[in-house]
Structures are given as structure tokens and as C-alpha cells.
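Problem 12. The chain below contains 450 residues. Write out its predicted structure in C-alpha cell notation.
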Amino acid sequence: MRHRALKNMSLFAAALVALAACSPGTPDEGSKTLKVAYQKTDSFTALDTMFQSAKEEFEAANQGVTVELQPIQGNDDDYGTKLALALRSPSTAPDVFYEDTFKVRSDVDAGYLLKLDSHLEGWEDWDKYDDAAKAAGRADDGGTYAVPLGTDTRAIWYNKKVLAAAGISEPWQPRSWQDILDAARKIKANDPSAIPFNMYAGKGTGEGTVMQGFYELLYGTGSSLYDEESKKWVVGSAGFKDSLGFLKTLYDEQLAVTPAEALDANVWKKVFGEWFPDGKLGATVEGSYAPSFWQKGGSYEWPGYEQDMGVAPFPTQNGDAPGAVSMSGGWTLAVGAETKEPDLAFKFLSTALNQKNSLAFTVESSQIAVRTDVAADPGYQDANPFVKDVSDLVKVTRYRPATSDYPRISAAVQEATEAVITGSRTPEQAAADYDAAVTDIVGGDKTVRK
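Solution.
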């Protein structure tokens, strides 16, 4: 999940246009229009670039077919809301759309996604996708409903100059939570105006709160959000309380941003666009895509970021094996269940995700490649100096539970972190509130105390 700017949001509601003319090149298809919905912001244009290229390529090869691009302005949460509204009606539902991996199963349950197995069987490129990546688009029935664009990992990004000024040598690699706090306190002592260590918290940053922060803490305690063996949600977790306790220490000692800044949905803009380049932020937990903001053509171009920035794995609570924790997410392309042109829609999807377009998107957005031919391409390997470091984190990464209940569970986690950093609840109280919320959401028979 990356953070996106919220700008000029509007609902899209375009009806399918039936053109009268019939193309002699494709008489069986006639004149048709495909609607393609996706997210676009002033800081995330890689999708728009990819779809513009795919539109040109597809229309040239399919006479009589028009691709109507429908970019939706909004951050991740707002994009999801607008897309869900459009998917509820056949008259507004797009034929192809950009879909977050953690919403695949809930949207399959809602009947919004077309099962793609029969189409994938005839697509030779499908064999080039990593097995783990393929699983991101799979539903409970074992069928595949979405094709991955790329994936990501989470790590600690740090400013070498800020750490050096505080007497912290690099490469910096904290081995425990205590190491993080010790370094943050040194930075604070050296420069009281600096922000030592940022971890997103609260509902303002939405999924960024849990993916770029809380889950690194939770899974580093040996606990988990969901028990895969019993297929039940974990409550009563000591690790959950410890994770909230770490956030409390970080915010109480003013080692992070202020609570007011944390609750600002656009705080990430200051992280990337101001605090790091200006040498006012020591470190933050962020996605592997971070360089996409600073590289040439990025939203916050920063010449020399390669020399000033470093990256380190996020440690486990006390340095226990495997020593580090990461989280992976990613986005996919899906075909709408209501499409009147399923074959054409999949054909466009496969055009958008061919090797050429996938490589360009992966490099521009600093994604981790999910196609073997993209991963092997020199253009990908040389995209930025951190590709190997963030790709290596795949071996210790975790994924969000891909269940239909997850979005509401995530919201409850965000509420717990907000209550703690604002001081309205203690970690113990907030954890108890979370347990009660989870039980209410899924029912007591679908929870387990661990």
C-alpha cells in the first residue's frame, strides 16, 4: 500500500457506449468500448503511463475497439470507496480495474470480479509469474480473479547525515526495538528540532498505519493477527499490547511526529518531500517503493538521495529469529464480473501487463518484480541502488490475511493505535477494545486467544 494524494475526487459513472460502425478487420467484435478504472494522483502516475501505452497498443491491434480510461483521483482508501460504489451497478462498473490484493477475496464474495482461470490457461505469460504472486489473486474457491502488477516490502529508511550527526555509524542495523529507541534518543539529544523515528499511527493514514508500522511490531513479537491453522482471528495477544506499548513510548517521548501530524492523512508528503531531503527526519518505516518519489521524474525529486539515504530491515522485538520482519502487499488488475466483453477485457489486461509495460511500470513505481523476465531485465536491476536490499526482505516478509473480514479488522487496529498515541487509552485498554471489536465483527467462535 503506498500513500497517495487526495485531490479533486469525483465519482465516475460512464455508461457502455455501443458504436454503430463495424470494423472490417474484426467483424466478429464490431465497435465496442472497454472502460478501465484506476488510481491516479499527483504523486502516482505510473499506472496512467502504463494504461496510456496499453490503450495505444491495444486499439492499434483491435480495430473498432475503444479503450476509455477512467482515472480516479484519491488516496488508497478513497479510491477503494469510489471503485466499490461504481462496481455496485452494471451501468457504472468498469470492465477492467486496479484492485488492492487485500480486497480481492471480499470483492469476489460480493460478486464484483470475474473468474479468470479459463483465460489464464491460454495466456503463455502466466508461467512467468512467481507462484507467491499468483496467490495474491486467488479466492477461497481456489480460482484466480486478479493478476498481480507487482509487490513490495517494508523496511527502515534512514538519513545517513542525521544519524552521523548524532554519533550513529552506518550502515545502521538495529537488532531490537531497544536499539531503535536508543538511536532515536541520541538523535533527539543532538537536535531537539529533528524527528528521530517516524511510525505511522491512527486512522488518518489508513492502511499505511498497519502496513508501514504496526504489523512490523506485532509480527516481531512472535504473535500474529490471524491464526492460519485454525482460521481464526487472534485476541488476547501479549504481542499486541507490547506493540501498542512501543508506539506509546515513541510518541510519549516525542521521538516520532506529533499526534496531530500523525492523524494528518498527508503526513507522508512531509516525510518524502520535506523532512528527509531537509535533514529533519532520522528514519521512518516505509515501503520498498520509497525511491520512486525521489528519483528523476518522481514527485519529490531529490538529486543525491542515493548517497544520503540508507535502508535496514526492521528488527524483531528482542532480536529473536529470523531477526527481521517485513510486510508485503501489492496491487492487481481484475476484470469486472458485469463486463459484456470478458474476452476483450482480458485481452486488454494481458496487453497492459505484457513484459514491456510491466517493466516500465515496475521501474517507474519502484515495485518488486513479480514476473521472472522483468526481474532478470538489466533495466529493473539498475533502477535504483536499493533494489537488492528491499528484494531480499521477501524471505522474511508477511502478508495481510486475505479474508473478507480483513478491512474491518484493519480499521480496528488503526483505531487502537490512534487511541494510544493520543493518550485516550492505555495500551492495555486499547488492546481490550480491539479484542471486543474483533469479536463483534467475526463472532466469538472465529477468535482464538494466543
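Discussion. The chain has 20 helices and 15 strands. Students who got a different answer should revisit the alignment rule from Section 12.3.
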